[in-house]
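Bumping with the actual sequence this time:
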Amino acid sequence: MSVTPSSRTPVVVAATVLALAVTSLPAHAHGGRPGPAPLARVAAAVETPSLFDDEAGGNANADDPAIWRNTADPDRSLVIATAKEGGLRVYGLDGRQVQSLPAPAAPAEGAPPGRFNNVDLITGLRFPDGRHDVAVVSDRGRDRLRVYRIDASRPAAPLTDVTDETAAPLLFSADQDEVAGQRTAYGLAAYTDRRSGRAYAVASRRNATALTLAELTADARGRVGYRTVRTISLPDSFRLPDGGRWTPCAEPGELPQVEGMVVDPVTGDLYAGQEDVGIWKLDADLRSPARLIEKVRSFGVPGTWNPATEECDAGADPGFGGRHISADVEGLTIWRDPARPGRAGYLLASSQGDDTFAAFDRDRGDAYAGGFRVAAGGAPGTPDGSQECDGAAVSGEPLGRRFPHGLLVVQDGANTPGSAGSDGGARTDTDFKFVDLAAVKRAARL
């Protein structure tokens, strides 16, 4: 059902760049490599209302955003975001909720309900009455895609579910019994192929390394279905420079999964973040070999699953990892600057393990270009920072009066201040932060 948001209203302040110098993290305890350099701090301009992952909050948990630009009226652009079992949320640029759409109910007693994990946009999908923008969602609970048509003429309810239930097959599972195990659709990236004009979505599989490509089409009724084109798997074990092999530690039966993904429709590049491994680059049609272009810092660190703590006990760091991302690598998004036409721009990645963001220069072979933190603004009543960020989305296009230089939206996995639940314990409080892209550009010197 639709969930009423927290009574807490969105906070709107002027975007502020704080002091550039912050305390750097310590060097790796075992490998002896230096810790990351101090990073700039950028304050959010807006935050959305709290979402609470409990029964009272409708089991809503902020996860992944997408930015839809209203070309006719950029001030009325939208942020569309997933809330897991809480479904889908739509926000205005002031952070206020515009619309809430529920995730689908369980198809049968005892079956998992819908659980929306990631969202992305397709511009100009062909419908019988013309082309329309749509939001595509990975439904982890049901192992399917769902599609929502965006209609700017309905400002109070701009999204409409247009999923064709008869043409929405399971993405990874053989049957409903396998869906119950929840090795289902997880990450998502959508795009339109420039050569053919066809619309596609790439989905990843939870607790596995598989990626699948699906083609989306609308029928004569205006309902959107899809068909699977091909499926590949990324590696789950790696040869190390010393000749040994390394497999990321995980609970028995689980493989290193991918969640954060983004496709550049101009170049056809797909970037896929394998959480405990690093960032892969391959063709969005999944035909090319995948290249690991950035490793997480813990790459190669041996680990042993500890059933008592349900965590991995790490061994000595052999020093084979990267320098810029602490696992998990999460939300990936591509930033093109309209002031630099012809440039491929930057890949931004959430470094969830140390609450930072890394930028990679795509015009210099995806070389590291700098990083930053989304931190608290400091003044009373202003948004806090972003911690444990899952998803991120960026738009370099002007978005009206509030964000004339573009917008970065990031998930905050530990929103503060939280509140106590009915049992007296702390509630899981999450939301989304809106950051002025001009502030990011200045702070990170991009």
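The tokens above came from a reply further down the thread. The helical segments are 176-179, 437-444.
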